Batch of 2 targets.
Target 1
Amino acid sequence: AQKRYASIRETPTVTKDGERINLVMNAGLMADLPSLKTSGAEGVGLFRTELQFLIRNQMPKRSELVAQYKRVLDSADGKRVVFRTLDIGSDKVLPYMKHVAEPNPALGWRAIRVGLDKRGVMRMQLQALLRAADGRPLTVMFPFVAQADEYREARWEVNKTLEREKRLGHVLPETLEVGAMLETPSLAFAPQKFFDEVDFISIGGNDLKQFFFAADRENELVRRRYDTLNVSFLSLIERIVERCGISDTPLSFCGEDAGRPIEALCLAAMGIRTLSMRPASIGPVKSLLLRSNLQDVRKIIADARHRGEQSVRPAIMEYLRDNG
Ligand code: PEP
Ligand code: MG
């Protein structure tokens, strides 16, 4: 499939009406890294660090993490890599960490909640990231932030770790960005001040959608029931775009929907400028964006919403049928 899109691999993603969209990739294992070159991704928008913890049978040492993160940055060769801190709990259980049985793990002790309660693990990972950067730019993001203070506490840990590293005589990153994943509807309704504080926001669409529609993303009986292009969900996206716009906060989207061409087209039309997806999706998404006029798509979305339709998908499909 990648061969089919080879001719547009180096083409910047600019829509017919001149809007520039950044297509970046999701990764998590060393084996994913060669895709940075072959897919045409402009960077790594989501590096899921937990995968390297999940494939082992004991807690990795800090020095091992440093070596791994260094390799990731080396192979990115100056392209931006967004390291997501450990996103464990829910469906991702570390075999070597004490497991607490929870009635609703998806709503339970997971991601940043674990990090804030187990500061030792969070610090070790932050330290490893800072050391791996070794004077290069570093981008870190915290998963599953549900309210502003969780981000603030995590950021406080980042600053503390930075100070400690400096005292120990380590080279600090050239620049450091600290972002939050917006994966629970609550964060879209945080005070505007939060959007001023955060360096960037990345929408974790898989979780956001699961919690918005109250439909388990792992449950075959319900997981396909609700459309991402449902106007209610698009209203939430619109709100997030607006809030980030007011604070001039960079916004990206990194759930599976970013890699589905029609969904990606609508997200771009709604104002999301960076889409992070599995490498094999870059070609198909780029191909559609290059042929599209976001102005038109925006109009179709607005009209369908105005008519009171449940989803904008039928209208978009019709438009795409009529316009090649
Ligand atoms: C998401 O929730 O959309 C996301 C990107 O994170 P994960 O799929 O790893 O939960
Ligand atoms: Mg998630």
Note: The pocket of magnesium ion (ligand 2) is lined by residues 143, 183, 204, 206-207 (CB under 6 Å).
Target 2
Amino acid sequence: TPKDIDYVEEIKRLKKEKNAVILAHYYQEPAIQDIADFVGDSLQLSYKAAEVDADLIVFAGVHFMAETAKILNPKKKVILPDFNAGCSLAESCEAKDLKALKDKHPDHIVITYVNTSAEVKAISDICCTSSNAKKIVDSVPLDQPIIFAPDKNLGAWIQKETGREMLLWDGACIVHEAFSIDKLLNTYKEHPTAKIIAHPESEDHILKTAEYIGSTSGLINYAKNSPAKEFIVATEAGILHEMQKEVPDKKLIPAPSHEDNTCACSECPYMKMNTMKKLYLCMEHEMPEVNVPEEIQKKALIPIQRMLEISA
Ligand code: 13P
Ligand code: SF4
């Protein structure tokens, strides 16, 4: 019966049989991270996806990540455990609406966070992730106006960091917008020697309390290299798995969310749609598969490649 299936063993078997490689984001559940061939942040996963030589790329993350892998490596079959694993940022920005904004501001170039659909990337000039957004914006000549989409929190932080005014899209991540400043300050009172570290998708009042702001891999590295013994971590709670492996002797406290938030304890409901069972099933049946029409794939590749070149 399906109940008796040893998913770890079955996934390992399928990996070999199908010459598959499993790429997983830090927000995936621990068992998925443990069985993946590579775990990383969105930028690292893009570099990895581009160089995969295996026949099958299994992307344990959300849809836009699997789609980016397909755009970068279009000859490979790319599958993901749950086709409905979306992202509130990607959903906030439809290509037709971005196109309308571009038409209103024809002198602006468009920088989009990778958390977008292939159609949106296809009408963008450069992509970015949270680990290279500063560098990407700094690479644009000072007199060149910029539309930055879709994350307004990341955008506002980049504006502060670079001193550049940008036209910001009004999107946000439901997980990072759910952190409660009051609860965070209470947690800090209970752990006064802890360092608060936060992902730049968080709101400004959270970022103001943070000792360090960075991407998921940036946060892990900071916890590793800082002499502090306790950290309050404001990002999706899945990251604590890898972080704790890196700093086994340090105390990691997830930043608290509002009680009435839809995502219990800072978990991304999209990322958490993926389970070991669905990972096994998608590998067994090689579906759902991500496909991108060739015309869109070619156009979307340009801003992604620009990003990879600038941040190399
Ligand atoms: P990074 O891994 O690039 O920090 O992205 C975080 C995120 O929200 C992905 O959905
Ligand atoms: Fe999107 Fe936020 Fe989930 Fe990342 S954590 S996939 S940005 S909703």
Note: The two ends are 48 Å apart (CA to CA).
